[in-house]
Design brief:
alpha/beta
Amino acid sequence: AAREAKKEIKELRDSIKKVEPFFKAMGKPAANDWLASHTEAGQTFEEYLDADPTKPTKERQKIYVLPLGTFNAKQQKLIAQTTEYLAAFYDLPVEQLPSRPLITSHPNIRQNRLTQTRQIKTGYILNEVLMPILPKDAAALIAFTIDDLYPDESMNYVFGQGSLENRVGVWSLFRLDDHTDERGFLLRTLKIAAHETGHMFSMKHCTKYECLMSGTNHLGETDSRPIDACPECSAKICWLSDTKPAERYTRLAEFCRKNGLMKEAEEFSRKAAAVKI
């Protein structure tokens, strides 16, 4: 069994290496970028395997998506698209749950001192809203909210937050439609959702490549990232979901074509072709 596992990992590593030309190496961060204020070592595929990561099991195969609050028609469509993207991205069944209200009070809400907007603490949502309702067959439970989020008093806001251990996460649509069109809103939401789900499968921030799993501090940085994981992180995804790289890239290309993301569809198709060689 150990020999078979080593063989599988080697084959996966060899296959994923073929998509390296599609990704940019991480450069020096600008003043306001994530890595300018956060020191992170990154995480190779081998380091991920050695860390005994949280992954889907025979009993826990499904990703659940939970809308928290009231969403308009545009936002509801976005959640449905993201649910479909997560299924293609992680090759796992994904189920959207009925919407629930999100009600809280002090000390789990605050007024942002700069924007004066109401914000909800992510820890409250993760620990007091999501953990008690985590389904037994859940590989992950991810919540959407239209409320602005913050993790603690040291940070102005976060787009989302996922637990590396407890299989729960949350992300917000609040800031994602700022100064963009419908396509940009969709791309930002797909990136944040897939990123936070990666954390729930114990994937750390990527520092080797410009990658969907790289940390972002602002929307400009989010916009600069691809909607796919780099070779190191794609290897983790294929391993945790037991899927083949070519099959995964083909599914993602189909999703992008269906949703009008033609540039992204073409790149996923080229990646699928590259790993088949």
